[in-house]
Write a structure and sequence with these properties.
The complex is a heterotrimer. Chain A is of the alpha+beta class. Chain A has 6 helices and 5 strands. In chain A, α3 crosses α6. The N and C termini of chain A lie far apart (64 Å). Chain B folds into 3 domains: 208 residues, Aldehyde Oxidoreductase, domain 3 (Alpha-Beta Complex); 237 residues, Aldehyde oxidase/xanthine dehydrogenase, molybdopterin binding domain (Aldehyde Oxidoreductase, domain 4, 2-Layer Sandwich); 160 residues, Aldehyde oxidase/xanthine dehydrogenase, molybdopterin binding domain (Aldehyde Oxidoreductase, domain 4). In chain B, 27% of the residues lie in helices and 23% in strands. Chain B is globular. The chains are: A alpha+beta, B alpha+beta, C alpha+beta. The interface between A and B is large, with 70 and 82 residues.
């Protein structure tokens, strides 16, 4: 294996030269969509009459408020929340459904906001980390659990974990530690402080039950 | 009586902002007219950019500016890049016309929104001239193989210049990139499954290894293939920049608020006083942002060119390229043991996958860590850093230490089994004690030694905590398709620096305000250390405030939060400033009320003496009245220049106290963690579960128990990830990465963590620092990694694996074949 | 043209309210339309800008595609039913437990809350070369980058390789094959129903598609017959990490016993070939045999006949053998 001649070019051994051509040209064969952007994007025509067509100006229910917002067709909920509604508590850690930092509740169910088209949640109730505490500032019992136990380290993952826990606890208010770990398993922590995170979220569950 | 703060749990003042989503990380800031940057990355592992045509992109409405390497300041050779890495003309520049790895940024575009910027990137035409490349270090040592750089393939010292006329030997030249190829014989002579041993680029010896091997009752030799692992901080290195009144305002995450400023100035080509860094929250560091990162220059320069604020959101894939990674070490290690398990000799050869830029220190650090952790009297270390066309490496928690431990620990565990010595005992007999020497001798023949070490005590504590004897008794016994195994490992790493400053203000409103220059990357040290000063001053904690995260708020000269320095270095600085504050409060009281300063007692937020009692508010007011050295109008002698500037800027705000850590230290500060693990392997699938992990920390006095426990677990998990799943994958033929996504590079999830975690800290003060505290960031990593490796070997045999990570495929294949079958040399598979 | 792997390109979006509306849209935009289900596969392609379309038809508003109905002792599951809904449905739990078990170990909770059963079986392969946007056979080119002498192919195929060596990543697919499910496919022209094992295509049939779905067609429902309700089931997935990761190998079996004798059995294995493989030879050899370790071991050996490793995936052969052995043996612990 180790003495494999790496530069040999045979039909079965695709050449680097062809590969290089390939990578440089990659994407050239797909449609080169014209650059369309902002509110007057010409490609996104308002074909209101066609069945199934979509209006860009929509109302979203976010944290109990109706928000009017102009949403591109390909816009994700994370983009809308962070860049149009100013709700930057929802973090983007991977933008590929692999870390959970962007977790929000959609009709009480945890979803990755990076992987939801905003247009698909027009009729739903969205809750983000900013929507958990009361308007007067009283923390949600799960948030209070994090404070009680000094949970998390850098905390970039924290809003996502908290939203996952809040969503999970709606389905199982009295979980074991192991069950809660499964409940929040779609969230990655790179400080890897999983032990203290679980302690904090278990405290949050306890707070929620006694609230 | 004042609060006892040291050793107590508490709630950090930043946690409510974090848990409500109000905490602002770099990408959470918004400025009017903000543009968005996107990077154009090299598709090739090594190439020369022959031509760039940006005309179509620049013609797009909404595209505002493009920067290339031509917009960057000239490189400054000799500048410190942190962690002992020195800049050279071969250093990374941030943008390049000769990309050195697939994914290296070539240029950046700023446009009115992210979509426009992305579409502009696609409109840019670049002509590349492909250059030879190497993505496997051992391959690049073969005769006739390609070099990663046109200058060569290894970092090594050129031959020394001849002695001068007066006979004095010339100083050794600085290492440079040169070509080093091993001979065909070197490769042919390597036993099957072993790393060839050709010419090293560097080496050191202590004692006499031949004599050491001669007295050995058992000699084991192993080749071990390591894994490259990206830091994968959860917050990518996004940054936002704008210019105002001739100053650069930069929002970014960093591991040192203060020490990032000179780097940014150098990367952008301005003076440090022209930089304001805002870094209130940082989403993880682990060594990847010490201090700061070169990509910070990109939004800064784009902003200057476009005359508008620029946000650069870094994607996860980009983070894989520019976000730093721990270098893999590939090694051959021969170890001699006496009958009782004592290590008689170590002969180690390490090949470090260096990446394309400056020389990283992991290979050398691996040798030092082995020397420290197992105290061999006779040891030879040889190494070579081979350049590869893969993303730049950097320090990652226990850089080199973890890799060294992973080389040595499985050998130690195997020796214990072969010699019939208990694994805990073999660690104890070889453990460093007290002022333990380690590493190479300097030119005067002196070796470094530790300030203190209580590893044996930690092993005894862990044996009990983990219930080692019971778990060991069931190791290796198969029940159904399952077999359990338990392992123990020791790890060691640097844990503290000296010489930084503390700075506080006793304000006229009675609050004590601590200025913290520490980066807020989640360790809680940013707040913890100031509790030392508060305790010394006898001021209730609820009367204290900590200011951090913005260099325009005038912070003291502070260590970078890397190498586990902070808790040690900054509790010393806090001790110094707290002690100085008490003296100054006494002086102010004496001036106000009469009598001798020493007769005044400072406690409970007050100062009392013969003339009466003053509140801290009154002290703050009186200090302003007194001026001079009391309110900062005269900066104290002895503190670092940076701190002096901050003192001047804070002048008049109260009693301004600054002091430098001038405490003596005899020895090098090192911390230790011992880890114990039990795993259960399913021999029909190779899949395993970590049933329990226990760690005991020898880190001196405990400052914040809850955070220390979390750091110990988190650090251990980082090591566990190295043992179990984390890796890079490179196609050697095309020189490109394949494991760009988390589901391929595999950072551990919460369900991959040990099912049970036990913890203890010895809480034995280090005698060479006034507070007794050492750092914790690095040492758990090797313990976590190696406890798992040793537990696996106890379950499935010492011959089952010879590389990390140990995944189900490796175990199953080995169990099928009866020995390790994975390729002994190829990296990144 | 330089490459950037970020930001979904602009597309026109339609959100039909019914299957008929959706089919009309697919028909009207033929050739340049992307069907969006839960999106967990789609967004990768679109965000990486490796696949582009001018029109996306989002099925999220089509209520009739969602839900689980009990019919004739079996089930009809709408293609847009989420995996979480499948996991928790009482009838799935009660009668067809392997499907719940398979759905429950897909990816992560948030993904299961959004990913659909139709999408899980129709998703594209995860070959890291193909997913990087390289112009391989599957992408319409004329080489397989995962099958060169130096390729890294730990997670690739050991069976039925034919130029392309990618594998089916689905967890629910082998369970549905074992349950003898039927897939309901509709187009403007009408409806066709295919057996689960016939829904999936290997490269020898079609190297650029994983399933029989053709432009203009929608997978609308999956029907599970009563045949295997409450059978003896076995499900297992071996993966690296316990969250997010695709299977290294997975196995699903449904068995009927008369006494200790295996009177009937269906078994399927995933992630060893481009399609989930129903192991008919194993089924035939096992029928009428006692459910013993010996029968199970023989089944395992039979299952891997013809398996050919690539450079880095030889482990999949004993892994598949042992999983098939377990699937026949049942949950009893190994004795050897």
């Amino acid at each position: 294996m180790d003495d494999m001649n790496k530069t040999e070019e045979t039909p079965n051994n695709p050449s680097r030269r062809n590969f290089i051509k390939g990578v440089i040209a990659a994407g050239a064969t797909v449609s080169s969509a014209s650059y369309l952007f902002r509110t007057n994007a010409a490609g996104q025509t308002q074909t209101a009459s066609a069945p199934g067509s979509v209006e860009r100006l929509i109302s979203l229910s976010v944290n109990g408020q109706e928000r009017r917002v102009d949403v591109m067709k390909q816009e994700t909920l994370a983009q809308t929340l962070r860049y149009k509604l100013g709700l930057t508590g929802t973090k983007l850690g991977c933008d590929r459904a692999e870390c959970g930092a962007c977790t929000v509740l959609i009709d009480d169910v945890p979803h990755y906001a990076c992987s939801v088209l905003t247009h698909t949640v027009r009729t739903k109730k969205i809750v983000t980390i900013e929507g958990l505490a009361s308007p007067e500032g009283t923390l949600h019992p799960v948030q209070q659990g994090v404070v009680d136990e000094q949970g998390f380290q850098c905390a970039f993952c924290m809003p996502g974990f908290v939203m996952s826990a809040v969503g999970y606890l709606k389905t199982n208010p009295n979980p074991t530690r192991e069950q809660l770990a499964h409940g929040v398993s779609g969230n990655l922590c790179r400080c890897q402080d999983y032990d203290k995170i679980l302690t904090a979220l278990m405290k949050g569950a306890e707070n929620l039950r006694s609230a | 009586m004042a609060d006892k703060l040291i050793g107590q749990n508490y709630t950090t003042p930043d946690i409510v902002a974090k848990v409500t989503g109000k905490a602002k990380y770099a990408e959470d800031f918004r400025v009017d007219g903000m543009l968005f940057a996107k990077l154009l990355l090299s598709p090739l592992p090594h190439a020369r950019v022959k031509n760039i045509d940006t005309s179509a992109a620049l013609a797009m409405p909404g595209v505002k500016a493009i920067v290339t390497v031509d917009d960057l300041p000239s490189p400054v050779a000799g500048a410190s890049l942190g962690e002992g890495i020195t800049a050279s003309t071969l250093s990374e520049r941030g943008l390049t016309m000769e990309p050195m790895y697939h994914g290296e940024p070539i240029l950046a575009v700023a446009a009115v929104d992210e979509l426009t910027a992305a579409e502009a990137i696609e409109k840019i035409e670049i002509e590349y001239e492909p250059l030879p490349f190497a993505v496997d270090p051992v391959e690049s040592l073969r005769p006739g193989s390609a070099n990663a750089r046109t200058q060569g393939n290894v970092w090594m010292r050129p031959p020394a210049a001849p002695a001068s006329a007066d006979g004095k030997p010339a100083p050794p030249p600085r290492p440079d990139v040169l070509e080093l190829k091993w001979t065909a014989d070197d490769f042919a002579n390597a036993p099957a499954g072993h790393l060839p041993l050709g010419k090293p680029a560097d080496e050191w010896v202590v004692g006499d290894i031949d004599a050491g091997f001669k007295e050995a009752a058992l000699v084991l030799e192993r080749t071990w293939v390591g894994n490259n692992t990206s830091h994968q901080v959860l917050e990518p290195r996004s940054a936002m920049a704008y210019w105002q009144n001739g100053k650069l305002f930069l929002h970014a995450g960093t591991q040192s608020t203060v020490q990032t400023v000179p780097n940014v100035a150098r990367w952008v080509g301005i003076k440090p006083e022209e930089v304001v860094l805002i870094s209130e929250y940082t989403g993880g560091g682990f060594g990847s942002r010490i201090p700061g990162y070169i990509a910070m220059a990109i939004p800064a320069l784009l902003s200057k060119k476009a005359q508008a604020p620029v946000m650069m959101r870094i994607t996860r894939e980009e983070e894989h390229y520019i976000g730093r990674a721990r270098p893999a070490l590939h090694s051959r290690c021969k170890v001699g043991f006496a009958k009782d398990g004592r290590v008689t000799a170590v002969d180690l050869f390490v090949v470090t996958e260096n990446g394309p830029f400056d020389q990283v220190g992991d290979g050398r650090s691996a040798g030092d860590t082995i020397s420290l952790s197992y105290q061999p009297k006779n040891m030879r270390w040889r190494g070579v850093n081979v350049l590869t066309n893969t993303p730049p490496r950097g320090a990652q928690r226990a850089p080199g230490g973890m890799q060294g431990q992973a080389i040595m620990e499985p050998i130690l565990a195997e020796a214990a089994r072969k010699l019939g010595v208990d694994e805990v005992e073999i660690h104890k007999i070889n453990a460093p004690v007290g002022k333990a020497t380690f590493g190479a001798a300097n030119q005067r023949g002196q070796r470094q030694y530790t300030t203190s070490a209580f590893v044996r005590e930690a092993l005894d504590r862990g044996r009990e905590l983990f219930n080692w004897d019971e778990k060991k008794a069931r190791s290796g016994k198969r029940v159904g398709s399952k077999v359990r195994g338990s392992g123990v490992a020791v790890s060691a790493y640097s844990a503290g620096s000296v010489g930084f400053d503390g700075l506080l203000i006793v304000r006229p409103d009675g609050k004590v305000q601590f200025q913290s220059g520490i980066g807020n990357l989640g360790t809680h040290a940013i707040i913890d250390v100031h509790r030392v000063a508060a305790q010394i001053m006898g001021v209730p904690w609820d009367q204290c405030e900590v200011v951090w995260g913005n260099t325009s708020k005038h912070l003291p000269w502070t260590c970078a939060s890397g190498g586990s320095q902070t808790t040690h270095a900054m509790t010393r600085a806090a001790h110094a400033v707290g002690t100085r504050a008490v003296q100054m409060i006494q002086e102010v009281a004496a001036k106000a009320k009469g009598g001798s300063p020493a007769a005044y007692k400072v406690a409970d937020g007050k100062v009392s003496g013969q003339g009466g009692t003053m509140t801290l508010a009154q002290i703050g007011q009186k200090a302003i009245e007194l001026g001079g050295i009391y309110d900062g109008h005269e900066a104290p002698d002895g503190v670092n220049a940076w701190t002096k500037t901050s003192v001047s800027a804070l002048a008049g705000q109260g009693l301004v106290v600054a002091a430098k850590d001038d405490y003596k230290r005899d020895g090098q500060t090192r911390s230790f963690v011992v880890g114990f693990a039990e795993v259960e392997v399913d021999v029909e699938t190779g899949k395993y579960t970590i049933l329990e992990y226990a760690a005991v920390a020898d880190v001196g006095t405990v400052i914040n128990p809850r955070s220390l426990k979390g750091q110990t677990f988190g650090g251990s998990m980082l090591g566990i990830g190295h043992a179990t799943s984390q890796k890079w994958v490179y196609d050697q033929h095309y020189g490109v990465p394949l494991a760009k996504r988390f589901h391929y590079s595999k950072p551990p999830s919460i369900l991959d963590a040990p099912q049970k975690y036990e913890w203890a800290a010895l809480d034995l003060p280090d005698p060479e620092t006034p507070v007794g505290a050492r750092g914790i960031g690095e040492p758990p990593v090797g313990a976590g990694c190696c406890a798992i490796l040793n537990a696996l070997a106890a379950a499935v045999g010492d011959d089952a694996f010879r590389r990390m990570p140990v995944q189900a495929d490796i175990i199953l294949t080995a169990l099928e074949a009866g020995h390790a079958v994975h390729e002994p040399l190829t990296a990144n598979i | 043209m330089a490459v950037i792997r970020d930001m979904m390109p602009v597309f026109e979006l339609f959100q039909p309210a019914s299957i008929d509306e959706a089919l009309n849209l697919l028909d009207a935009h033929q050739g340049d339309v992307w069907v969006l289900g839960g999106g967990m596969d789609s967004f990768d392609w679109l965000k990486d800008r490796t696949k582009r379309v001018s029109t996306v038809v989002d099925l999220s508003q089509v209520g009739e595609l969602r839900g689980i109905k009990e019919a004739n002792g079996g089930l009809e599951i709408g293609a847009m039913t989420t995996l979480t809904e499948v996991v928790h449905h009482p009838a799935v739990q009660a009668k067809f437990r392997i499907l719940a078990e398979a759905a429950e170990v897909v990816a992560s909770p948030q993904i299961r809350n959004q990913a659909t059963l139709g999408g899980n079986v129709s998703q594209d392969t995860r070959c890291w070369y193909y997913r990087s946007g390289w112009s391989c056979y599957r992408a319409g080119g004329n080489i397989c980058y995962a099958d060169t002498p130096t390729a890294i192919n730990r997670e690739h195929a050991i069976l039925q390789q034919d130029r392309c060596v990618a594998v089916s990543p689905s967890d629910t697919a082998p369970a549905l094959v074992a349950l003898d499910a039927e897939f309901v496919i509709r187009s403007k022209g009408g409806e066709r129903v295919v057996k689960a094992e016939d829904y999936f295509l290997g490269p020898q049939i079609d190297i650029t598609h994983m399933t029989v779905l053709r432009p203009g067609e929608l997978l609308t429902a999956i029907r599970i017959p009563a045949t295997w309700a409450n059978a003896q089931f076995y499900w297992e997935k071996v993966r690296d990490r316990n969250v997010w990761d695709f299977p290294l190998v997975n196995v699903a079996s449904a068995m009927k016993l008369s006494g200790t004798t295996i009177s009937d059995v269906r078994i399927a294995v995933g992630a060893v070939a481009a399609r989930p493989l129903r192991l008919t030879a194993v089924e035939a050899a096992t029928k009428g045999k006692p459910r013993t370790e010996e029968t199970a071991s023989a089944a395992g050996e039979l299952a891997i006949q013809g398996a050919t490793p690539l450079r880095y995936n030889a482990y999949k052969i004993p892994l598949m053998r042992n999983l098939v052995k377990r699937a026949i043996r049942g949950n009893a612990q190994a004795t050897t």
